[in-house]
Amino acid sequence: MSDRVGTNMDFVRKLVETRNLRDIEQIVGTDEDGNMIVVGEGWAYLSETGMMMSEYLADGSPREENCGEKQKIEMLYLIPHDLKPEEHDRILAVEHRAFPLPPNYHVKQIVGADNVFFILPEEGNSMIAGSYVVIEQQLSSAAHSYYTRGLAVNVLERYYFEFLVESHQLYLKEQQFKQEMKRKQFQRELKERKKRKSDLTKNTITTKNFHQDKNGQYFCEREIKLWGVTTTLYANFQKNPKNEKWTLQAFITQLNTHILWIEDHEKEIQKELLDADMAELARDWMQGWEVLGEDGKTYYEVDDGEMFPYPITEDIFLKCLYIQSITIDGDTPEISSIHFFLGTEPDFFAYHSIELFIDAETTIQEPDQIDIKYSIHVGGLAG
Hints:
Blueprint: H1 2-19, H2 24-27, E1 28-30, E2 36-46, E3 51-54, E4 69-79, H3 88-92, E5 98-100, E6 107-113, E7 116-121, E8 128-130, H4 132-147, E9 151-152, H5 153-192, E10 211-212, E11 218-226, E12 229-237, H6 248-264, H7 266-275, H8 278-285, E13 290-292, E14 298-301, E15 307-309, H9 314-320, E16 321-330, E17 335-344, E18 353-366, E19 369-382
Parallel strand pairs: 12-16
Antiparallel strand pairs: 1-2, 2-3, 2-4, 3-9, 4-5, 6-7, 7-8, 10-11, 11-12, 13-14, 14-15, 16-17, 17-18, 18-19
Helix pairs in contact: 4-5
């Protein structure tokens, strides 16, 4: 994604030269997928009856007729994450990618968070918010009218401050529903994980799972199952010009060995966490959340008012523990760094994660035979 964002930023600089954009540090917002929204300036005709239309037609040619007073307005350029260099001219030629903002609406900053863009205005205006898809879908009709027959200013304002708001609320509800379904599925996985082992055949990583950026680095992001629960694997590999034998395939061989070792040594990793007093730390963090149940017993009140058994014993702690993500770097064939983030369900640590490191020291005995020694280190909480 970072490579694509870099490509898009090159295009934004091209836009600056072409479209008279303002301070680029303030007017560019990027979401987690790499989509971008850029604020620029354009000219619109404003009639006495409150109609506005672009000085350009949809094909980029200038509008010949005079349709009112000419006024500079701000525009939103939507740049998709998968934009290819050969498509740059399509954006420059408008084609419903440059969306007009209402007259006298001035953007101060754009912030992208959780795949939602927050367009922050200068004083006196309302904030605009929405995902890339929602903004594009809601404003496409307004843009079409703007570049053809024109549209009323009050209608354009309704698109931004009424229709877009409603669509964004529906989007948030949909995302909340998806998160709740994902959470319930995850809770089922936690309850059932002791009944079955992870299907390790589905965990096997191949060269097809890797992508290469323009700097020659390979990276992989994939969901796998460890300890019976879905987690995210991140893997990074860089060729070493001093060692031609250290290839991507050689790294993948070690990578799959590491994944198998982690699955088979769950107890050993858990013991290190208990020895580092993580269960006791969980009890410390949950102090103040104790409530008396209707049965007279003490519980913790957790998410959504649910009652959770008190106190958090080591056994309970381990039943709630899961791997959130693993990052494995393969800079050299001799040692790999494995970086864990672990969480609990319910969340004992208030949106913090347990950080854990494993160093894998590899001895290559023969081309197809390796010996790996693993050492585990608990880093504490991160958040």
